[in-house]
Structure to design on (472 residues):
């Protein structure tokens, strides 16, 4: 008697668009997941790696890069297995990082996870607003110098471009969820490759040109221009830059939730993580090491600016435009979990509200019918507006990102994946595996604290010279 009913449900066209838990059917593959990861990881942080290697030197710099690559990949595989619980293949799906922690650990750790994740995501979106405007201003400056000479007064304001960036994000933020974001991540990933390759090519040309630069095994040297304490602070900041350049765990579960249910999501996510982290490490190693070889111990914070605003101005313009386009996509990758969390909570709190729950189809030229939700329209527009205003009021906010990253890297990338693995597999206390996992966890905690100290020192330095709404 049950068979006809089952067959009826299977043949129902509405059921074909639903997943095993009644939600919208997922269509993501390891390719789209890899694109999301590359978009999230190869951010503008790649541009600071030449500076980071310069602080650490030829021995410690590449070693730290490789160490964090291995740590990030290892903990991401642990986190991928926690997506379904209690079984990593047949268990119940958990849609967010908080859901995963709730299923595996529970208690106050869920709130700690939420605070670490969402504070980091908000900070990153504000930082990306600043960084994208800086890249467009760099294009304006290089064109100004090219047209008017190298002595021209070329100091355009960042603020109009922050507003333009925010307007673009207001439109893109209406993309309903991560499942509809794959095309934007692929475009952003291509852009990240483009500006990394341009910077790499210019660095190789600089080295091949025979320009003499001083590099050392231990990096920048204490002397007239660098005190011993500044060397320590810079070393701390460099370790922090490298550690946080790999941190994509804040969005890993949300990325995994876009994958099709077969093949198993954890296997596909591990493949995507391997591709994403390997690709990232290759680019980081090339850009960091060759950038250091090109500029030596005087490597700038952004190695694209080390080539000046002059010639080849058109190539540096292309690189900076690619950075801006990449950050447009990366902003969406990092803000979608915030949007999803707030909208889910509001729908649970006010399930009868038409303003929150109802959608209507609107015909968009060249795109067909597009679902519009009034709450999503108002709330997401308000979020983008607020982040843009904060970026405009505190344009040095990038200094906060190191501090925010220090507070989120350890719990989200290391602590929770390890603790959930220990709880899920039921590893005996003081066994060999338990001990070395704990050693790894505490080592990363110390690194996060060290990076936080360096970030606070950098923040205090920025505050001393801060002048609101002043064009740099």
């Amino acid at each position: 008697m049950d068979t006809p009913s089952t067959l009826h449900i299977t043949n129902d066209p509405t059921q074909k668009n639903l997943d095993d838990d009644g939600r919208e059917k997922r269509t993501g593959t390891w390719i789209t997941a890899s694109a999301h990861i590359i978009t999230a990881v190869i951010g503008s942080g790649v541009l600071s790696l030449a500076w980071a290697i310069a602080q650490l030197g030829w021995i410690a710099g590449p070693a730290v890069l490789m160490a964090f690559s291995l740590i990030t990949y290892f903990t991401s595989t642990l986190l991928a297995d926690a997506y379904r619980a209690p079984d990593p293949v047949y268990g119940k799906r958990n849609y967010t990082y908080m859901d995963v922690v709730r299923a595996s650990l529970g208690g106050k750790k869920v709130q700690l996870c939420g605070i670490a994740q969402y504070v980091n995501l908000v900070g990153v979106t504000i930082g990306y607003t600043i960084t994208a405007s800086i890249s467009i201003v760099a294009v304006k400056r290089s064109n100004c110098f090219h047209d008017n000479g190298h002595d021209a007064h070329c100091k355009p304001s960042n603020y109009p471009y922050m507003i333009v960036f925010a307007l673009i994000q207001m439109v893109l933020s209406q993309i309903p969820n991560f499942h509809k974001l794959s095309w934007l991540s692929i475009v952003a990933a291509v852009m990240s490759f483009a500006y990394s390759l341009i910077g790499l090519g210019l660095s190789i040309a600089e080295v091949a040109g025979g320009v003499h630069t001083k590099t050392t095994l231990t990096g920048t040297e204490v002397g007239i221009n660098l005190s011993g304490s500044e060397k320590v602070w810079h070393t701390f900041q460099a370790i922090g830059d490298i550690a946080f350049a790999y941190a994509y765990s804040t969005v890993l579960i949300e990325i995994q939730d876009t994958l099709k249910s077969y093949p198993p999501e954890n296997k596909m996510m591990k493949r995507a993580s391997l591709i994403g982290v390997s690709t990232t490490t290759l680019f980081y190693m090339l850009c960091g090491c060759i950038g250091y070889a090109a500029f030596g111990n005087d490597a700038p914070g952004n190695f694209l600016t080390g080539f000046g605003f002059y010639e080849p101005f058109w190539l540096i313009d292309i690189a900076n435009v690619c950075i801006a386009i990449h950050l447009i996509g990366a902003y969406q990758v990092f803000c979608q979990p915030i949007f999803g969390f707030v909208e889910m909570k509001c729908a649970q709190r006010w399930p009868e509200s038409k303003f929150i729950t109802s959608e209507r189809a609107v015909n968009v030229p060249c795109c067909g019918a597009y679902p519009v939700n009034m709450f999503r329209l108002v709330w997401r527009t308000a979020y983008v507006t607020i982040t843009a205003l904060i970026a405009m009021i505190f344009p040095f906010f990038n200094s906060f990102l190191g501090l925010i990253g220090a507070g989120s890297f350890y719990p989200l990338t290391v602590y929770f994946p390890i603790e959930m693995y220990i709880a899920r597999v039921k590893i005996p206390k003081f066994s060999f595996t338990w001990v070395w996992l704990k050693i790894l966890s505490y080592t990363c905690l110390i690194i996060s604290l060290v990076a936080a100290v360096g970030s606070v020192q950098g923040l205090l330095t920025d505050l001393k010279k801060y002048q609101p709404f002043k064009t740099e």
Notes: The two ends are 75 Å apart (CA to CA). The longest strand covers residues 360-364. The chain is about 70% helix and 5% strand. Confidence is low (pLDDT under 50) at residues 1-11.
